[in-house]
Amino acid sequence: MVASMRIAPNLLRTCKQLTVLPRMVSTKILTVDNINPQVITMQYAVRGPIVIRAVELEKELAKGASKPFKSVIRANIGDAHAMGQKPITFIRQVLACVTNPSLLETGKYPADVVEHAKALLDGCGGHSTGSYSQSPGIDLIRKHISEYITRRDGGIPSDPENVVLSGGASESIRNVLKLFVDHRKSKKVGIMIPIPQYPLYSASVEEFALGQVGYYLEEEKNWGLNVTELERAYQESLKKYDTKVLCVINPGNPTGQVLSRQNMEEVVKFAHKHNLFLMADEVYQDNIYAEGSKFHSFKKVINEMGAPYNMMELASFHSVSKGYMGECGMRGGYVEFFNLDPDVYVLYKKMISAKLCSTVLGQIVMDCVVCPPKPGDPSYDQWLKEKTAVLDSLKERARLVKEAYGSIEGVSCNEVQGAMYAFPRLLLPPKAIEKARSLNQEPDFFYAMQLLESTGVCIVPGSGFGQKEGTYHFRTTILPQKDVMKDMLARFTSFHKKFLEEYK
Amino acid sequence: MVASMRIAPNLLRTCKQLTVLPRMVSTKILTVDNINPQVITMQYAVRGPIVIRAVELEKELAKGASKPFKSVIRANIGDAHAMGQKPITFIRQVLACVTNPSLLETGKYPADVVEHAKALLDGCGGHSTGSYSQSPGIDLIRKHISEYITRRDGGIPSDPENVVLSGGASESIRNVLKLFVDHRKSKKVGIMIPIPQYPLYSASVEEFALGQVGYYLEEEKNWGLNVTELERAYQESLKKYDTKVLCVINPGNPTGQVLSRQNMEEVVKFAHKHNLFLMADEVYQDNIYAEGSKFHSFKKVINEMGAPYNMMELASFHSVSKGYMGECGMRGGYVEFFNLDPDVYVLYKKMISAKLCSTVLGQIVMDCVVCPPKPGDPSYDQWLKEKTAVLDSLKERARLVKEAYGSIEGVSCNEVQGAMYAFPRLLLPPKAIEKARSLNQEPDFFYAMQLLESTGVCIVPGSGFGQKEGTYHFRTTILPQKDVMKDMLARFTSFHKKFLEEYK
């Protein structure tokens, strides 16, 4: 339903063209009638029609068009630098040195930056970042990642051989999902994903023609995972699918919850009981804000739970795009496998080899994240100061957003415990819902588009992430810097009042 | 056949484990018995078992192991920097400035580098290369690419809107192939690919469960395309497949031919007659060495041929990994679409949006390639000198390789007109073929593995690219620098003599 809604504008246009110009369309070899059907049905709302319209509006403003607002505020995507966050100096100094090694000899860079850059260049073919790396990534960086994981998890060992770098975490997530595809079988493999969820999952599951098995997060319990609901979703799925995978996003996207240790143990027991492969999206592991919240990796939890849980198959993902660094454009990420069948792993590495390797500079940013300056290193103080400033500011904005949305009539908002998003609920008046339906739009899509056209604020409707029937939400990032954030909240509040007035 | 051969070592190991340890294997959720079957059958020889062994040998040498050689020479992959080619200064200076913009103010960089970097940063969200770009790439870079294409093709217009950047050309090639997948249909879409071919094509066709339609290149005519052979392959394919796509690699990989203008017109007429979508892999467009050879883009040719050919659907690919820059690790590339159905294009852009964007720094390297210093710019002289030196040296090595392999008994080698490879033919003695078969190996795989173990020279057997039944070849790059190249040719010649002696 949701999927068919969102594509409406394109398909409508297509239908019109098919009606008006049948000859023109039919002369093409590749058309919407014979294209990969999964490409038609897959949807990725974070870059959907509302965002496309936001980009158009920005271009119109740049050309001097008159609008009821002076700027577009893009709160649709977790893109920290685009919202004014400054890069971490250490990372950028290392990048400059590895791209232009003549800088190493200038004496202008701190000794630890120079040392770090030299070690990385030693790991590159011909000492150049312009060489391909091995497909799983540069050996030294895989080693640093596994050392980081070991430290993070309080000493639970990690083997560099089980770490594979990729162009952002997305690429690894998609590669792992792809392993479960089998078009010969009549029953698709079912992939359990949260609702609401980050639409990379629904889009990839759809693109690969896997089976989407949604389990609802409990809004009333700050978007926690309820095992009864997991069980319901699993049992129902078996009618259609051979369900084999459980995806968990922690901290949550778009929902901002941080799973408690106890909740994670329940989830692990559930997954073990049904022989499910665990995919743990842990890209927000550095983004924890709430008092009493703490990040636990699934790897640590299953290991500490002991046998038989420590034998479970797990793929855990991390990225350079989030955390305190927010280096989205660099496309760095990794997957760590745990207990993967060794023969499957051989095939995995073969599969990714056709794409040669992920960007070496993205790998290097990942290295700077997992192997930052240590106390006593010349770069340490500045690095710590910058990191702390970003995380403190995000924490403040997480609080600000919850308070602001929570105080508006007809909006409710859970605490943003972690990650980079709030997912407030909208109580839309029946007349607004009616109006949206008359336009063949989801009510929260209608709301979000009106908000954009009236105020320039770009958010993503909840229907793009999934939500309980009859509820409406939107996702907003907490990334706008404080002054922009206040501007955004003011624009939103004013629009929302008018909207309620219009449709009361 | 070839595919099943190459996987033999892994599968054999798997089979053994299944026999010896059935319980261990069966406890896993994801196993070789239920993994995506396309992942088992797909093969990518450029990073296959011989290369894996080469990496092992390098590690053994580094640990001080005694071998009959002191170094591994990796002639298996077109990885210029790994083989000692130096980066182009202009590209690396721009990269340093966009990653660490404080360099812009130091006065140490040429004015055109600074200007270039500033313009690119203006195109990035929040002026940071750490921001996501739009999924098709940064607008300014798409514009520069289309201006480059227009210049290259003598004024034939190119629209920036039709250009989409990607992580290397490979990603674009795979994305376009994916459009033709339809698992609902009993007849797969057939993709015509050359034999020998760059195994990205066979691997991706296999991974996506498309139909591989091989057409043989004519070794006797310097690996040219023969329309009679295209016709044969096409007609035969129709029994099994709904053949819709013709892939052409020009200049050729692994075969090094440069198509003549006349040959291209024949190919275009063939494609038009059968309503085939053209995929033109033109990543070696700057690598032309032979007297009288010239690069013509398929876009230029179909436009100059006029109607109805200028209405044909075409996707053309380019990359930063080859040419004179060889920036493989940066993962920059693009596809230009021509005459693509507009609704298909909307869906294409939606499909790639789930992967967010390709690496921004890879996009920036692409920009430096399509928008290099102009005469009169402060960086121009050095840029031209460096570019010319690389291309002149490649030209010399292309000649050297052909002469060397051509002069060895039992080896023949076509002229390397372009690209970065020679694909010499091996006349193997029947006893060697017998020996290989007894080991369940392809004869040229057997030869290449022996060569590696005895001399450290790593080449890729012809069976990884496909070849006519009963013929044996190998692919070697022309990338080793001149002294290494001479060393490699000496090692090869000495091994080859001994091999012929052993199996005579």
UniProtKB/TrEMBL annotation, chains A, B:
CDD domains: AAT_like
Cofactor: pyridoxal 5'-phosphate
UniProt cross-references to Gene3D superfamilies, sorted A to Z: 1.10.287.1970, Aspartate Aminotransferase, domain 1, Type I PLP-dependent aspartate aminotransferase-like (Major domain)
Entry protein name: alanine transaminase
InterPro entries: ALAT1/2-like (IPR045088), Aminotransferase_I/II_large (IPR004839), PyrdxlP-dep_Trfase (IPR015424), PyrdxlP-dep_Trfase_major (IPR015421), PyrdxlP-dep_Trfase_small (IPR015422)
Residue ranges of every copy of the Aminotransferase class I/classII large domain listed in the record: 104-482
MF annotations from Gene Ontology: L-alanine:2-oxoglutarate aminotransferase activity; pyridoxal phosphate binding
Functional pathway: Amino-acid degradation; L-alanine degradation via transaminase pathway; pyruvate from L-alanine: step 1/1
One Pfam family in the UniProt entry: Aminotran_1_2
Reaction equation(s) it catalyzes: L-alanine + 2-oxoglutarate = pyruvate + L-glutamate
Subunit relationships: Homodimer.
EC annotation from Swiss-Prot or TrEMBL: 2.6.1.2
Organism domain of life: Eukaryota
Source organism of the structure: Cylicocyclus nassatus (Nematode worm)
Broadest EC class assigned to this enzyme: transferase
Keywords noted in UniProt: Aminotransferase, Pyridoxal phosphate, Transferase
Family statement: Belongs to the class-I pyridoxal-phosphate-dependent aminotransferase family. Alanine aminotransferase subfamily.
